[in-house]
Amino acid sequence: MYANVNDVVKEGQLLAELDKALELRARANETQRAIRRAQINLEIEKLTLEAYQAQGKPSYEVEIQKLKVEQAQMDFDELMENLGIDPNAAVTDEIEAQVAQARAFAPADGTIISAVNPGRNVTPTTPAFILGDPNKLEVVADLPAGDDEVKEMFEGMPAVVIVDARAGLELTGTIRQLPSPYGTGPSEEHVIHVVLDIPPSADTYQSGDKVTVKLVLASKESILWLPPDAIRSGAGRTFVIVNSDSGPKRVDIEIGLQTRDMVEIVSGLAEGQVVIGP
Asked: Domain of 75?
């Protein structure tokens, strides 16, 4: 590893390499010498054949030399095959290409947001590094269970973001992406991406901060409401327990809008009634 999280890197900068790359680089000079030796042997046999033909050597000597050229060519091809190098490619370019496959370079200027740990086994699809612009952060928020609330959301919808570590600080932003089929994001991602209206700073938010996202799906005034824990259900009924002159009484209710803390009571209760909690 040649770079760490929070490092600022430039396009083309070497970030890390596999052990394989270190081994390939260590063997590169030895490999090139072996290849060059085979190339020289092949070239000597070819030049000898040309000399025999120019000197009018007996046909059997010329034929023997042709076989030596063929044998030198086979030795060269076998060596290249064993090294995993295309015999028709430029040798140096091919070796460098093999080394490059085991190395990770920065594709653009940016700051390293996350990185794999040294010594970890990886596959060709393992993200080695995530680069980003620390001045262009966004919020990734888990969606509530079920699709009912997601159906009311849309990309570009206003959002309020509360930074958990800074009580009272509310930031504004918009939904940039929702999962498919409600937006342009992957269907398997059950999250929303929110872009904030102001850039990060020491006084507002920074990468890694935990936040709460609030979205207004609907707005009503002067409604009756109860906390979710006060509402019960069973046998296909939604009801509450209220005090009455004859004691606790079960009352069926109809509910409307729901949030984590409040449930709208559409019918079944009147203002001032006392509801008994669980």
From this structure: 19-101
CATH number at residue 180: 2.40.30
Amino acid (one-letter) located at 120 = R
Beta strands in the chain (DSSP E): 8-9, 14-17, 103-105, 110-115, 129-132, 138-142, 158-163, 170-177, 191-196, 211-214, 224-226, 232-234, 237-242, 249-252, 254-258, 263-267, 275-276
Query: Do 203 and 245 fall into the same domain?
Result: no
- Domain membership of residue 117 (yes or no) is no
* Residue found under tokens 């007996």: 58
pTM for the full model? 0.48
Q: Is the pLDDT of residue 86 over 80?
A: no
Report residue 249 as tokens: 């009484």
Residue 133 CB partners (closer than 8 Å, separation 6+): 110, 111
- What is the DSSP pairing of strand 249-252 with strand 211-214? unpaired
Q: Is residue 93 pLDDT above 80, yes or no?
A: no
